[in-house]
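for the writeup, i need someone to sanity check this before i put it in the appendix. the sequnce is what the collaborator sent (i think, or maybe the updated version? ugh). structure was predicted straight from it, no edits. if anything looks off just tell me and ill rerun, i have time this weekend
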Amino acid sequence: MVNAVRVTDKSCIKPLKDRLEREGVLHKRLKIAQDDGGTGFLIPLNSSAEIPADITDQFELVKIADDVPLEEQKKLPISKWSLYPPMALLPYNCPDITTKQAEMVAKTLNVSHIARNSPISDQNDIVRKPHIVPIYGDFGPEPTPESVEHPSKDDFEHAFWASSVQNGIRQCWAPRYTMFSRGNIHEKTRVLNSFASQATIKDHVVVDMYAGIGYFALAYAAQGPHRVFCWEINPWSVHGLVKGAQLNNWPVRVIQHDEEYIENENDFIIVFLEDNKNAPRRLNELSKPITHINLGLLPHSKLAWQDSLSMASKNTSSPCIIHIHENVAQEDLPTYPQQTLITLQSLNPNLQISFLHLEKIKTFAPAVWHICADYKISQPATTG
């Protein structure tokens, strides 16, 4: 795998490419190509060269495949792909390939399945339904409204599942029913490397209000918390999260929306298949404090801010960090931290809230950033 700079503004491609070439950072063999979602372009970098800091600050870095010999790549009818064993995912604008060509691609890349990606048509889709076109291999039965909303045990068993390893953590999902965002690796790495310095994770409680297949929940789990409580409304994402936890050998159980939760001493990852509005009630009495609450929904997670503050307010012995994900226009980034702080404080004036950090994760669209803002929630200092 090699690094690549992801650019969403076409006008930036040539000047950035020219600069990278001058500084010896541009990859000499791999070509610039569109990303899987068709919303940006990937400029491959020389893995042995140091990337200028101002570039890493301004643009998202992603990993792309470089594990197929050049001579083999030249024989392929495609020039860009992402590997998610046992599947190769092609970009949405990839040319059509014949069955014979698909067989050659599968053999060369050592995969059993090939699909073409498609852009998400509805960016406000909370469930984040995927859009792929199967090309080669058995992807399981065609999804139906019933199998999407109310999957049976047989639906799960007959579906095709793909996997990925990032930061040594295995994740799993059904490409026909849920999506995987490899661009989140930047934030997953931050969860692993710096969140524990904001507030203790080990032996404490973490809450993920929009867990998906466990993008961030599994990164928290890798750090030895007492419990990781997850909320997710998509049953396919929940099943993927369960399979991912099992692949990492972590205990996991699912609680249905009409099922009472009774804390078990062996609990580790607990996934509630329901609306997260039930979170404050479910976690009203815990033996350990909540020190991190993850709000990883785009374009925003404002509907969960009040409940998150309510749960954070239960802490008396340690602060709680709320991690707010949102799509923010470039021009609004300078004022976002303070404006959000004012809003949070208005939701619960009795708490002491402070802004810690704003992380630009990746460009979501031209001049729009997917960010995560960290806020520290504490009880007000007592006097006397």
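The mean pLDDT is 88. The first strand starts at residue 2 and ends at 7.
thx in advance!!
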